[in-house]
Fold this sequence. Notes:
mainly beta
Amino acid sequence: MRKHHVLPTLALALVLTFAFAPAPDFLPAAFAAHDGGHGGHDSHSPGGTSNAAPPAGAAIYSAKGTITRLEKAEGSITLRHEAVPAVRWPAMTMTFRLEDPSAADGFKSGDAVRFDFRNDGPTPTVVYIEPLE
């Protein structure tokens, strides 16, 4: 009588499924550090981004957070932000590209803000920012 080895076959099927599955689209490319985790990864920068227009209909998301680093000359801002369920992000600290660096005029590290962003490229882009009162 021939024995069937279901477990090794199932394990191989799972490995092949995940090995060739596309990466989930909800993970931010600029994923930095989870709160309560690895500390700030301030070395992340928006290098390599292009000035190409976002795809038609690119969604805008809103969140609240605190500025941990502002590099206007580089066109980047690092924010410790709340969870953003719409894109399945946990609360974390990450670097965003500033669509318009002058929008960050008057802000400094430690400021609490509300911001709008697009998640349509290698680095999410802040399109609007305002102080929290």
